[in-house]
Write a structure and sequence with these properties.
five-stranded parallel sheet, 11 helices, 5 strands, 12% strand, globular, binds adenosine-5'-diphosphate
Amino acid sequence: MCDRPSMGAIVGLTGGIGSGKSTVARMFEALGATVIDADAIVHELQAPGAPMLEEIAEAFGAHLIDANGALDRAALGAIVFGDDEARKRLNGIVHPQVGAEFARRVRAAQEAGTALLVLDIPLLFEGRRAGTGTSAVMRFDATVLVAAREETQIARVIARDGATREEALDRIRAQMTLDEKRGLADYVIENDGSLDETRRQVEATFEAISAAQP
Ligand code: ADP
């Protein structure tokens, strides 16, 4: 006899910037899913005083930590942008710790017995392709893509982040194209319409994934 709690499917949730991925993650949560947010883990592990900051400062310079002990993300981004060696070094510091924390939270959620575990990973398909990060080693029962037209993404990023149109476009075009992602996803949630239309798709996807579980 097996007395372990039911595992629940592991879902990889992804979507380009401004597509509405965080909004969809909250809708999954409202249906009873447990959501683990990759960006939130990175931010926690890089909070002022966190050991990872010392490693980053040792590798790339103490000037990356400001007077309040916070990481200067823009300066770090400028160092690794277009420098493969530097990016690899940074990934070597960040990815193992993020991966370990991810694994710890997945285990905790499974032990608590969750119906559906949603891993919110912005660069899921990019990471898989590059063979780096959590998405490269994690096995998902299903992947869900949140899709929105580029004009929708631009408008949302401008409204949410106060970005210019050019900045929004740069950030969108630095990611894999939507068409490529569509070809890789098991489920696609179209998020150009109203929040109600999106919620209905999230409910249908939640049910389809749950029904597909053995
Ligand atoms: P992402 O996590 O993909 O970057 P968010 O979920 O933060 O995107 O959504 C970006 C912005 O667009 C947010 O301000 C959010 O409230 C808004 N938004 C998302 N989906 C919709 C929708 N269907 N209708 C209206 N606004 C939306």
